[in-house]
Write a structure and sequence with these properties.
- A hairpin with a 3-residue loop joins strand 18 and strand 19 (309-310).
- Helix content is 21%, strand content 25%.
- The radius of gyration is 23 Å and the shape is globular.
- The protein is of the alpha/beta class.
Length: 433
């Protein structure tokens, strides 16, 4: 099957879904070759920035759709800002520590969009209703035409447009994962997910149970520690050995809830006022028709080559499905990989090889797209296969330094600062509160 129309006079029409960091990155690279590409992006809200947009609203927005962002007011990045730079726009620096406030990240994205002059490609208040693939014959070859239904949220009018390629840039931090907890329906206190957490002062003097112990659980727990009376952090995995504030007490996995008493699997119990799920998010792409040939099972998106290319329909890619990753540089290498493929600068391997790569590597489907320390292996492999400049190798060392500090001191790690030499030859980390 031909990937795109081979008519040299016709530009490749590319639909970008979303204008968060991934969508902006896609547009930046598409717009670098407007003789070849004809990009168009659709954003459901009226702003760029995606997850980095803060609002005190929770629940539904003015159009009746769920609030997308999980951003809380005082959030600081849990990845060092120096490593969050797009490799071709390294302007973001922390004033002190490398864990910077969310406003710095959003300002950086706006600067990025303005610098590369990509805002005019974005259509705001447009909701993607459906993406459908149609295989048609062109000469002696088959190509895929993408039919996209788009709803104008101001007029409610729906139009259908055709594209040669689809870049899904919708992210994966908007639909909360709420695991079943026996008896929680009778809990008399406040129940919330980290998705709707906004301000720590709303929890002054409270006894809080945080269900979860990953990034959002520890970051929010540390933030709440100077406001709450006590925070019980229920860990379903191994006990955290890193330094934590004294008001955070680690407890075992939850057995059940009776009234405002939480029972744990070791028989112990505590009484709390607040039950907060920090249990992650569910991956979903409700606009994808079955013709897209993508399945999502317990957050495992299949079949994708290198977490990016839809193997069944290679003119569709996904930029934002990975977690435990420094996202901006990931978007950069994934976007380049996809566009180099569309421009036929390299050829994808056989379907059999790609399907082998797409297989579940661990025991848990919901962890299939977690990368963490292996992320630079993926970045390097994408760059090597497509033939573009890889992420500077020093970024890997800098992440290792940051990880060591984080694993030692979850309480203060965001106050450490990554310093990378101007020539990318070395990196160090210093405490900079």
């Amino acid at each position: 099957m031909n990937l795109v129309n081979t008519d040299s006079k016709k530009k490749v029409r590319v639909c970008v879904i979303g204008s968060g960091a991934a969508g902006l990155c896609a547009l930046r690279h598409l717009s670098s070759d407007l003789d070849y590409f004809e990009p168009e992006a659709f954003e459901q809200t009226g702003n760029i920035g995606g997850i980095w947009i803060y609002t005190e609203k929770i629940g539904l927005d003015e159009n009746g759709f769920p609030i997308h962002t999980s951003m809380y007011r005082d959030l600081r990045s849990n990845a060092p800002c120096e490593l969050m730079n797009f490799p071709d726009f390294r302007t973001m620096k922390g004033n002190k520590g490398s864990g910077v406030h969310r406003e710095i990240l959003l300002s950086y994205l706006r600067d990025y969009a303005n610098h590369f002059q990509i805002l005019h490609f974005i259509k705001f208040f447009k909701k993607i209703e459906e993406v459908r693939a149609e295989i048609i014959q062109s000469g002696d070859k088959n190509i895929t035409i993408w039919h996209v239904k788009i709803k104008d949220l101001n007029t409610m009018e729906i139009v259908c447009k055709e594209y040669d390629a689809i870049m899904v840039c919708t992210g994966n931090y908007s639909r909360p994962n709420i695991p079943i907890v026996s008896g929680i329906e009778n809990f008399p206190g406040q129940i919330l997910h980290s998705h709707t957490y906004r301000k720590p002062e709303e929890f002054i003097g409270k006894n809080i149970l945080i269900f979860g112990s990953a990034f959002s659980a520890t970051d929010i727990g540390v933030e709440l520690s100077t406001y709450a009376n006590v925070i019980y952090m229920s860990n379903r995995g191994e006990r955290i050995t890193s330094k934590l504030p004294p008001s955070i007490i680690q407890v075992p996995n939850i057995k059940c809830v009776e009234g405002n008493k939480i029972y744990f699997i070791d028989g112990s119990s505590v009484i709390v006022d607040v039950f907060m799920y920090c249990t992650g998010y569910l991956m979903e792409f409700p606009f994808l028709d079955k013709s897209c040939a993508i399945s999502v099972d317990d957050n495992f998106v299949y079949p994708l080559y290198k977490h990016t290319i839809n193997i069944n329909q290679p003119t569709m890619c996904f930029l934002g499905i990975n977690s435990y990753v420094i996202t901006f540089p990931m978007f950069h290498v994934k976007a380049l990989f996809f566009l180099y493929m569309l421009k036929k600068r390299f050829k994808l391997p056989s379907k059999e090889i790609m399907l082998e790569d797409a297989k579940l590597k661990g025991n848990k489907k919901r962890h299939a797209h977690r990368l963490f320390l292996s992320q630079y292996d993926l970045f390097d492999s994408l760059a090597h296969e497509a033939g573009f400049q890889p992420i500077p190798h020093i970024f890997r060392k800098a992440l290792d330094l940051w990880t060591i500090v984080r694993e030692d001191d979850l309480w203060h790690y965001k106050d450490y600062k990554i310093i990378i030499n101007n020539d990318d030859s070395d990196a160090e980390i210093v405490y900079s509160p």
